[in-house]
Amino acid sequence: PSIDRMLGLPDFDYLARSRLNPAEYAYIAHGAGSEASFRNNLEAFNNFRFRPRVMVNITNIDASLKTSILGHEFDEPFFISPFAQAGIANKVAEGGLVNGASKHNLLYISSQTTTLPLEEIAALKEEGQVIWQQVSLSTLNDEPPIELFARIKSAGMKAIVLTVDSAGDRTAYRPLRYLPDTSISRDPRYTFMTWDFYKELQSLTTLPIIPKGIQTVEDARRAIEIGAPAIFLSNHGGRSLDGSPSALEIAWEIHENDPDIFSEIEVYADGGVRYGTDVLKLLALGVRAVGVGRPFMYANMYGSEGVSRAITLLEKEVTSAGANLGLVSLKDIDASYVSAFWDLV
Ligand code: FNR
Questions:
Q1: Which residue's CA lies nearest to atom 21 of ligand 1?
Q2: Which SUPFAM superfamilies match (predicted)?
């Protein structure tokens, strides 16, 4: 279908469902175990309600969504989360993502297990475009990854996102028996991750290392104590521990128990974000920027045009929902614009 028929992020999923072969679609779409966490990532947003203010004069609305993320200026408060093998959806692979992100001055985080090698991805960057590099703890062996960090640095990536969830084996949900086994087996010798090890890794590079996969207020606080430059709340899109909380629930836990965290450090979050209203609920709780995974993988079926279309759609939704909330500027959003559904009943 013509790209103009895509009117929201979920449309790209419907397209992928009918166009990709079942094994490829299942690899991208699946969640771990019963997929309860995957579904909850989508549904948790509805456990929070907005508290819109009416009769606010929005004639001089500041439509800018500009946000600084770890000192870099971006035009959107959302970004492309790191996901493996973009080549599954399109031969252009990560190229569509890098170019789409560049067109909108959006942060792109490249996965460690991309289709194209990281140097090739880095070479696709536009002048001045900021890209971060994700590294999975589970792929590091007990040798310090000096070489890998040096490659990342010389490729011009500006930060390392260290995925700290998924320490154990993962049993993927397989909707059809004949689909390939996408479970990941870990060698237990190499799956240690202590905060001391994190410090050791940080000492190997001048690039900031941001832990991705923080899921409790305790770990958020611990990351600050250890000197993390920022934290990334995520349950890996519900693909790792079934029963793990959604990013919105983690952000709420922090908001309720240790809200200073949001001003002490930049907090990023992803999982289940499909609408502008989802972005706004996370920002309201104090999240600095919000990641989106699967929808960009599907949008990339159209290459950079599709990625660009998805960004434009999400941007429009954030802007119009912000106006309906009574926000003159996105900078004014705070926790008074949301309430938890269970507090209302
Ligand atoms: C991922 N994710 C992921 N995360 C990571 O740190 N390294 C990786 O290589 C991958 N690979 C990956 C592949 C695929 C196909 C998916 C769907 C996801 C998780 C990703 O970064 C992000 O946390 C989730 O995708 C966010 O959830 P949504 O937006 O997909 O619901």
A1: 82
A2: FMN-linked oxidoreductases
